[in-house]
Model the fold of this input.
Amino acid sequence: MSDRQPDTTPPASDPAPGPASAPRGAAFLLAQIGAHAAGRFAERVGDLGLTPADVGLLRMIAGRPGRSQRALAEDLGVVPSRVVTLIDSLEGKGLVERRRSAEDRRNHELHLTAEGRRTLGAVSRKAAAHEDDLLAALDPAQRAQLLDLLERVATQQELTPGVHPGYRTLQKSPRSGRPE
Amino acid sequence: MSDRQPDTTPPASDPAPGPASAPRGAAFLLAQIGAHAAGRFAERVGDLGLTPADVGLLRMIAGRPGRSQRALAEDLGVVPSRVVTLIDSLEGKGLVERRRSAEDRRNHELHLTAEGRRTLGAVSRKAAAHEDDLLAALDPAQRAQLLDLLERVATQQELTPGVHPGYRTLQKSPRSGRPE
DNA sequence: TATTGTTATACTCTATAACTATA
DNA sequence: TATAGTTATAGAGTATAACAATA
Done:
């Protein structure tokens, strides 16, 4: 990587090969650290046979047992058919149970099984260890400070508590250029 | 959502339907805000016809012009064939140029075109607006504080400056419980 | 024979839409 | 006819591996 290029390569293009290219802002760091955190968390819950989406589902069902798949899909911002797949998997693992609603037999009321609750407990321990590792660089005061700042940002950005955008399909750049 | 369920549905499962389900930690917020930030950034650069991965490539090429695709793949943690696709797209848009290396003609040296540099300038403006929106809840002092905390975390976690984990495939949980 | 880049193939994931059963 | 859930199909994205050119 030196500069001994023969006359076949015109000196043409490169003007300022250094700065301006490495993003240094907090927004980039948030995205970078966020993706890193999500990946590490995925590894950890992977040990339990779960994906992060599974965990999200378990938490939502635990928080409001008996809700329907449709309601769940709405809250998560995903399409109902995806909930079918996710619940299939959780039911197959014996963590979630579908119960036909007696009021409206089209509905499935979702509940955790006993093992589902145990698993959710294990997830909580994984999450605690994860947080501790992720923030190893910060002392308790700094962690509190970070939490405070992040909560301000999340609130102002109107992020739904407990709902991870990763559950729904990333909005790919809507398509290059034209308006809808 | 009332509690008039007939005897067909045993009161069985749900014990503590409330807390324990909504994650409140900084790690979750980092992942949530990070995904949100990435999504919003994707929208913005989508206006320029670019994906976030495109932007990352442009930045790396700008930072070190002339590098080979293989080196790029290594630094990004992606497979070389993916770099082919990405560069194809950028070259098709006239932003990047492949030049046969005179030293080793197997190599392609990558360079930005003049338009590529202009586009990167536009990206920087998008990024600045993005950051400003994302951190609208914080005053300048708080933003500096956040940046400081995030940098500590990124350093301790050994995150490569400028390299977004989203460029490479998320490590799916290596196995989902049972060996298939 | 080893290495750079490319192409071809297969796999995974997810949304769309058709379908069923209840209402 | 409308709605909850399911199933079937198709599309996007990406890794794996075979391949061509150069060393």
Notes: Chain B has one domain: 27-159.
